[in-house]
Amino acid sequence: MDEDALYETRERVAAEINEILLHRLRNNIRFCERCGRSLPLHHRGRLCDDCYRRMRRRREGTH
Ligand SMILES: [Zn+2]
């Protein structure tokens, strides 16, 4: 067992995870509740535009 190599790998992986988490936090990424697509920054609501429009159209067409 090469312990030095293990420590090196662990540190590199930890740094990558930190990078990803920081990136997500910084961009405040959220995802559409229906299709799971990432929503644009400052997007209002829980659905992406496509799902929102589709839902509205369906609702309006029922009468
Ligand atoms: Zn969607």
**Can you give the mean pLDDT?**
86
Which strand-content bin applies to the residues? under 5%
Order of helices and strands: HH
Q: How big is the Rg?
A: 20 Å
Poorly predicted runs of 5 or more residues: none
Tell me the total number of β-strands. 0
Counted by DSSP, the helix tally is: 2
The largest pleated sheet is described as: none
State the shape. Answer: rod-shaped
Bound molecules: zinc ion
Helix content: 55-70%
Q: Write down the domain tally.
A: 1
Q: Could you tell me how far the N terminus lies from the C terminus, measured between alpha carbons in angstroms?
A: 71 Å
What do these coordinates show?
The chain contains two helices and no strands. The chain has 63 residues and is mainly α. The model has no long low-confidence stretch (mean pLDDT 86). It has helices at residues 3-27, 49-60. The protein has one domain (3-60). The protein is rod-shaped, with a radius of gyration of 20 Å. Helices cover 59% and strands 0% of the residues. The chain binds zinc ion. Zinc ion (ZN) binds next to helix 2.
In short:
This protein is mainly alpha-helical and 63 residues long. It is 59% helix and 0% strand. The chain binds zinc ion (ZN).
